[in-house]
Every structure is written in structure tokens, then in C-alpha cells.
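INFO worker-7 received task bundle
INFO bundle size: 2
INFO processing item 0
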Amino acid sequence: MKKKAILIVLFSILISANIFSQHPKSEYKKYFDENREIFISYGFEIFLRLTFKDDNTFSTDGFDYHFCDGTYSFSNNTIKINYPFNYIDKGNVKSLKDFGLNGDKASEIIIDLDKSDIFCKGAYISGDKVFWSDKPSEPYKEYIFEGIKCIKYPIRIRIKENLKMRKTPSLKGELVHLDYYNKEKEAYISDRTVVFKNEEYKVLAKTLTEETIDGITAPWYLILVEGAPQPPDDPLCEYVWIFGGYSKILE
């Protein structure tokens, strides 16, 4: 029992020291060099930025202000934010928490090259925060999108009939309501609940199983639908599920 306890303790120490990193150091270094800035956006304008500089210093900045800087070290897959800081604006200490950082002690940010969701692969893990890379995740693999298991399925489709947009892939799924502006017809449609015939969409994912509706067997597709423009002229977009049986695959 004593030997077993010692082994468990040693295993825990190795894990905490990131000894079992699954990739060569060069891959983590490459990821770090390509992702030296972490951004947080709020709405359309306000944002926070954490920047790692070549001289092993970092800075954290708001939209129009600077609130913290200090030093960091990088080893294997871990960035250590040293404490105390060179400078901290006490009024903005809470903003450090948005990056998963501590305001009163050292922090660590872990690079996880294998972490994936339906959009991206590779991320910084900082406390309870996840900051994704821009690298797309692998297609034709199973992922979970908002609690629903699906397969990433990058195809384009053309809608053959007006189809209702739903929040879940089921005829019982709640309808999605979007205001819509058709630029070609210069027409504003309030409370749109369908995608229209002959519209074309890029599919993000499809369901694991198919469903038979009106004698047609097909999966449900997850697509991004654009709503009416919002300030400052960016459209309100939403991911919706549509039944794939009334669409044509273009590629």
C-alpha cells in the first residue's frame, strides 16, 4: 500500500509539471509564436487584449487604456505570468479575471494543441477560460454543438423549398425567429422563420442519424443564417437546423 501511495503522488506531480505533454516542444513554441495576442470582445467595439512580447514581458490593455504589465516565462506548454506585476491599475484588477488570471499571485496559461470543438483546434487554457486558435478543426469528425452530437460536414447546399429554421434537429424543435433584409429585392421581412427556396448555404454539420419526413430520408443540417443588419451594420447571424431532405448538395 505504501508503494502504491508513493506512485500515486509521483504521478500527480508529473501531471502538474506537464511532464506528459503529448507534443514536441517545438510545436508548442510555434503555437505560442503564432498566437502572442489574446483578444476578448464585448459587443462590437469594447475589447481587452493580452500581449506577450519578445522580451518576456506582457501587457494587458483595454479599448483605450492600459491597465497591467509584467513579466512571463515560457516552458514546454506553459506560460507563467509572474507576480508581482510591474504595473497594475487597481481599478481594473477585475479585468484580469476575464483572461483567467489572478490579481494577487502568479498564474499559468496552458497550451492544449489537441483541444477541439466544431470550429477550431488548439487553445490557451487559462483558469476556467478557453481562448481558441484560428486553426479549423478537422472535418468529418464527431463534435458536440450546444449539447447536440453531430458530424462536421463542410458542403454547400441549395434550398429546394422554403424550410423552417429550428433550434434543435427535430420537427418538435423550437422555431428560430430572425428579422431579415433582402438586398436584391430591397425588402425587409420581420420575424423570418424559414430559409427560402433557391438560397445557398455552407453547411457546418449534419446529424449523426437520418430522419424520414414526407417519405424523404435525410440528415438535418446546421447552417449559419444572416439576419437584418445591426449597428454598426454587422448582420445578426444565428446557427439553425434545417431538414436536409429538401436541399441539393452543390459540392
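INFO item 0 finished
INFO processing item 1
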Amino acid sequence: MKKPYRFRRWLFAPLVYLAAIFLLIEEWLWANGARAMRVLAQFPPLHALEAWIVRLPPYWALAVFVLPAVLLFPVKLLALLAIARGHAFSGIGVIVAAKLGGAAAVARLYTLTRPTLLTLPWFARWHGRFMETKDRWIARLQATHAWRRTSRLSAMLGRARRVWWRRLYKGRPGRHNSRPARVLRRFAAFWRARR
């Protein structure tokens, strides 16, 4: 009885590693996307849009929550068409950009619309079931050796990135002194002055 179990474990090991990597990337996209959207939401026009989204009735909030997936679906199809026509790098670049932008938008919209959406009984029931199932599967995945190894590797890469970033910006005062950050600060000051 040991041989089939060992064979099955050997067969599914790459899938477990793939799932662990996918989950780590998804967590990173969700967290950083939500943080980036929170920063962008400080601009007055986006702040007003978010205030409007929070006040929406439940079914309108559901429509707004689903909107990024609906809008990005044709973009992803066109990217697949570009890949099929021989423009692999362009197509993959569009898919990656759509995934990054979509994850950031969905993370922010989920934060804004969740209280309203949970007032819908069917949504609250399915949301609870989905979260329980997701937590159970994540706990099973986190109990594996593959998760621990992938998580250690991710932490090691994160530390290396932070060390590299500190060395790159060594001697420069302030946290956000890059040119894009300065342009965004000027843009925010411009919009605040117009109010």
C-alpha cells in the first residue's frame, strides 16, 4: 500500500509547488494592489468616486464589483489572439498587465462593496461558504512541505529585494523621492488647490 501512495505523492508534488507559488503571487498582488489603490484613492476625483461606490444599493454594488472582470475579458481574448498570431511577448505583456490592474481594482472594489454586498442574503451565504472552503484549502496547502519551502524562498527574495532597494537609494532622504512620486505629489497638490 505504500508504493501507490508514494507514487501519487511524487506525481502531485509539482502541482502542490505550482499551487503554492500561485497562491503566494495572488496574495502579493492582492495586498500590493489594494495598497496602491488606497494611495491612488487619495486623489480627489477618485475619492469622490469611491464615496459614490460605497453609497450604492446592493445590486448596483454587485454590478460595480463584477465590472473589472467583464471589462478585462475582451482584453484577455485579444491578448490570446495576439499570441496566436505570433506576437507572444505583446500578448503575454497584456495578460500580465490586465492581471495586475484587475487584481488591484478588484481588491479595492471588494473592500468598498463588501459591506453592501453582504446585505444580500444569497451573497452572504455563498461568500461565507467560499471563504470557509478557501481557508480550509489554504490551511491544507500551508501544511505541506512545498508551501514551507516556497514561503521561505519568497521571504528570502523579499529580504534581498529590500537590501537591494536600500543600497540603490542609499543617501537619499525621504521614502518617495523618485520622479514618479514627485509627479504624483504635484498632481495631488494641483487637485487639492482646485477644490
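INFO item 1 finished
INFO post-check item 1: The mean pLDDT is 81.
INFO post-check item 1: Residues 2-40 form the longest helix (39 residues).
INFO worker-7 idle
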